[in-house]
Amino acid sequence: LESRDDIDVVASTDWSRAYFPADDPGQLQAFRDEIDANWSAVQASGKDVIFVRDVPGNSVGDVPTCLAGITVPAVAPCSNPREKAIIDDTVLQTVAQNGDIPLVDTSQYFCTDETCMTYVGGVVTYADNNHMSNTYARSIAPHLGRDLTAAIESFGR
After folding, report:
1. Whole-model pTM above 0.90?
2. Does residue 118 contact residue 124 with C-beta atoms inside 8 Å?
3. What is the C-alpha separation between 145 and 116, in angstroms, rounded?
């Protein structure tokens, strides 16, 4: 990436909560330092970095299977409390540590102040237990595109 002249902006994302136990602060800080060093090297090569937060976590298992089991109307079927779905991700701490990386937060497309939904506007949000469904990805693409464009424009390009 550093040597490519045809790249101006690098978008990064990660699901670090799957890799490191939250109870090992030394390991978490080493991971943050390594990611920051990588991003800093890319930035030093004249490129800008954007971080796109991963989709909220899900504790109900396979979402389509859960939704298929709903037999009575529900306001938020198979959804998750926001405090369980949105965690203090170590990579987000690295974004703050770096200071020059805008954050594009996908949780706004899944969550209210209290609940992260598995069904929004008639569309199932997850294809399985943690991957966004293709239909939902297409439905939020224009909004996410505007967020990414705003992040890129924040660099003054």
Report:
1. no
2. yes
3. 21
